[in-house]
Amino acid sequence: MTQPTQQAAPADEQAHELPMLAGIAGFFHWLEEFLVILSGPFLTFGLGIGLVDLLSDGALFVNAPALLYVWAIAQTVGVDGQLVGTWARVGQAWRAGRAWSVVGFALLGVVLAYVGFVAALVFAYQQAYHLTTAGALAKLGFDTVSWLWQRTAVSVGLVCLSGLLRYQKPRQVVVDVEGEIQRIENERRIQAAKAVAQGDRLRGLVGMARGVAQAGQAKGSGVSAPPLSSPNGHRNGSS
Description:
Structural class: mainly alpha
Radius of gyration: 39 Å
Distance between the termini: 75 Å
Helix content: over 70%
Number of domains: 2
Strand content: under 5%
Shape: elongated
């Protein structure tokens, strides 16, 4: 007798977790959430540096030029660092079936992608054609003033969103063990009572069917049939 051969499953059904990828993905998810948390303080710090320099009529950067690099790093981490985290949240909301969250995060992700794309393109033009930022923007057809407005608006908007979307520890679900046990016990008693009632009804129907059958047999043979018994045990016609 030949042994039945097992057919190989299709390639798309052979889903196996690759080694270490779950841990690596978990680490990057933690890093994305960490960058989102950092973006608010970084952008606030950068806005503070810009405001101090404005109020001091430019004296801050003249006396401490290194703060210009601190401001630039804060803006970069705050704005561009949220790009991956935002699209990761789009994926999470999509898998959870939260349509409005998908739309909101996707719109924010598109705005951040636009800002990052323009910044990378301007930098590439600066390096390729040895231009200043204003020259690269002009060569690309962008207005310098409108670009600064867009970049600043995104920075301030992300400061507001960082407070609104700050990470919250998931709530622990507290289970009332005694209440759950009592609920299960009550359901078991209800089911048992229903089963007993169903059995009583079935026995009553069987008794009535037997009585009707006996009455039919007695009528056919000419013998008087005994009185039918009701389901509660009393004979019909008796007081």
